[in-house]
Design brief:
Length: 399
């Protein structure tokens, strides 16, 4: 706890973190509210798939474009501009709904804009962290960022469900728009400039990252783990529908178990030091996290399956925190924006692959095969990490 308090005493980090947390809770409400609006349309159920495409596919395009912006301009300005644009985009729904003129295509357009800009804060905030805290506090700062994601995953959807019954989905999106304005305000209050470390950045960041074996193996390991997590996203509703009692309530409990595990794991990891061998530390949690997928075979025991979901979250959170600190130390500061945008885009991009991989297995009721594939895909890269030496740091610590 002392480590977290030390980090939060840094005023600029505290402001940006609080604003990001509020915005992430708003993000957790967005898809629920948009889905409810689409379901109210004619043929709404079939349109949910289109909404999902609009919500996720632009993330890849936006992620590739946002990195150069973060490395060329002050990150505060980029985060403020992103928050204002998304606030306006989301606010178009409650404004047009209030006058009875909301077109049916608008939720899909808002979802596409949201997806296109999603990587701005996902890359911008971690790219700013090294400039806001001491190097010895990187794990704690990254843990606080991870805690924000976990809290948002638990609070946002539940809050949206409650508010929809009171103020409707358009009203929920008005609250969401306000959360973006909060983030814009807190970013504007950050006093320390977050301009590029050097105006003449390296011309070929991809080539530079490609020469760092540690960055490559950790990125591939996380891409593989996210394939397994993408499979889990499809497996969870399938289990709730076909294998476990309780229906939708069980599905909510399973997803909440993962988020709760992530929260606990992040809280623990932020107080741990991994300077001597961060790769080994990552591997030592990735391997048991992969084995936790085998608890899906404990159906119809809700407790055992829920424990599997909890363990996946508990053990994957430290992986994320330690790997992010490792990247911050190895990647030169002038490349942080492009590097984090690129790496997070690559890692997020494998989630749909996992969903596609799990679907035919579950259609044929092959849960054992799905759980085994998840374990192997997530675990084998962890074993590979044990064979790689951390090597020397890049020049980021010198800039």
């Amino acid at each position: 706890m002392r480590q977290y308090m030390s980090v939060l005493r840094a005023g600029d980090f505290r402001r940006l973190w609080l604003g990001s947390t509020v915005s992430l809770i708003g993000d957790g409400m967005t898809f629920v509210a948009l889905s409810w609006l689409v379901l109210a349309q004619t043929d709404g159920v079939s349109r949910l798939g289109l909404l999902g495409v609009c919500y996720t596919v632009p993330v890849v395009l936006g992620g590739l474009a946002v990195g150069p912006l973060l490395d060329r301009f002050d990150k505060r300005a980029v985060l403020i501009a992103d928050s204002l644009v998304r606030a306006v985009a989301v606010a178009t729904i409650p404004l047009t709904a209030a006058v009875g003129m909301m077109p049916d295509w608008l939720p899909f357009g808002v979802a596409a804009i949201y997806g296109l800009l999603k990587m701005v804060p996902l890359a911008g905030f971690p790219a700013a962290i090294p400039a806001l805290v001491r190097e010895t506090d990187l794990n704690a700062a990254n843990a606080l960022e991870s805690l924000s994601f976990s809290l948002a995953s638990m609070i946002g959807p539940v809050l949206a469900g409650v508010l929809i019954s009171w103020i409707g989905p358009a009203g929920v999106l008005a609250v969401d728009a306000a959360s973006f304005l909060v983030f814009a305000l807190t970013a504007a209050l950050v006093r320390r400039p977050l301009r590029p470390a050097r105006q003449a950045a390296a011309p070929a960041p991809l080539r530079r990252l490609g020469r760092d074996r540690v960055i490559i193996v950790t990125t591939v390991a996380f891409m593989a783990f996210n394939i397994a997590e993408g499979m889990l996203l499809i497996t969870a509703p399938w289990l709730a529908k076909h294998e476990l009692p309780g229906g939708a309530g069980t599905l909510g409990a399973l997803l909440a178990s993962t988020a709760a595990g992530e929260f606990v794991g992040a809280a623990i990891a932020g107080n741990m030091r991994t300077e001597r061998s961060p790769l080994r530390a990552i591997a030592m949690v990735q391997i048991p996290a992969a084995c936790a997928y085998l608890l899906l075979l404990a159906t119809p025991s809700q407790i055992a399956v829920g424990a599997g979901f909890f363990l996946v979250g508990l053990l994957s959170a430290p992986m994320t925190i330690w790997a992010q600190s490792l990247r911050m130390q190895r990647i030169p500061a002038e490349l942080h924006g492009r590097a984090f945008a690129l790496l997070r885009t690559l890692m997020q991009g494998t989630l749909p692959l996992g969903s596609a991989l799990a679907t035919p297995m579950l259609v044929h009721g092959q849960l054992a095969l799905a759980a085994t594939v998840m374990t192997l895909i997530a675990g084998l890269p962890g074993l590979a990490l044990l064979t790689v030496r951390d090597g020397s740091r890049a020049s980021s610590a010198q800039t």
